[in-house]
Amino acid sequence: MRAIFLFLVVIVLQTGCSQENVSKMPITEFNQELLDNAILVDVRTPEEFGEGHLENAKNINWYDQNFAENFSTVDKDKTIYVYCKMGGRSAKAQEKLKSLGFNHVVNLEGGYDAVKNKK
């Protein structure tokens, strides 16, 4: 009986961890091939975006009053990769998008600063 309980605990923990890993990844592991059925969103300000951004990124400013409305035409089953300068705004954006019913929102951890530092 103890072995069965331990087995179930391990399964639950693995399932929980694997789902968590799906919703975030280091920005340095991101590649353009992931955009086949997804969109890439930079949630920094237009000024920050203008100073450099990832290829094929769409700029939707987190601080814009109409942030949520900018996603009204996006399919809720489409994967959305979000990033910012260091990871704080993109984590907030991820939570907001999930609350709006988007099923696959991936926070690219480390932000654009991590990309610049890798170069």
Topology record:
Blueprint: H1 2-22, E1 24-26, E2 38-42, H2 46-50, E3 57-59, E4 79-83, H3 88-99, E5 104-109, H4 111-118
Parallel strand pairs: 1-5, 2-3, 2-4, 4-5
Protein name: Rhodanese-like domain-containing protein
Organism: Arenibacter arenosicollis
Domain Rhodanese: 34-119
Which descriptors would you attach to this protein?
globular, 4 helices, alpha/beta, 119 residues, Oxidized Rhodanese, domain 1, single chain
Share of β-strand residues: 15-25%
In the sheet with the most strands, the strands line up as: 1-5-4-2-3
> How far apart are the termini?
54 Å
Unreliable stretches covering 5 or more consecutive residues: 15-21
CATH architecture: 3-Layer(aba) Sandwich
As a whole number of angstroms, the C-alpha radius of gyration is 17 Å
Structural class: alpha/beta
Helix content: 25-40%
Mind telling me the CATH superfamily name?
A: Rhodanese-like domain
Overall mean pLDDT stands at: 87
Query: What oligomeric arrangement do these chains adopt?
Result: single chain
What is the fold named in CATH at topology level? Oxidized Rhodanese, domain 1
